[in-house]
Amino acid sequence: MTDVTTEACLVEEEEEVEPFSKTYDLADPEARERASIDLRNWGRLHTRKAYYDPETRILTLHFQPAADRRWAEWEATRKALILDDSR
Predict the structure, then answer these.
(1) Residue 4 belongs to some domain of the structure
(2) Structural domain contains residue 42
(3) The dihedral sign for the CA sequence 34, 82, 10, 16
(4) Which of 22, 34, 47, 77 is the most exposed place for a label (fewest CB within 10 A)?
């Protein structure tokens, strides 16, 4: 991020958050809970679900950034949380 100082006010230029996807195996209770948490964190309005194989219960969530760029910084934080596999 680049910092720009304007009239004693620090303004940061926003980074673009690109759409991204994450796959979950819903047969695993921890993965099912993680998918639910990630969906709530990003918001249902900007998330699309895709089931590849209902028998194996594989779910892919496609996360889209909001059109309103005021959310960009928060979306970058949420994206990092969602893609963090250590949780």
Answers:
(1) no
(2) yes
(3) negative
(4) 77
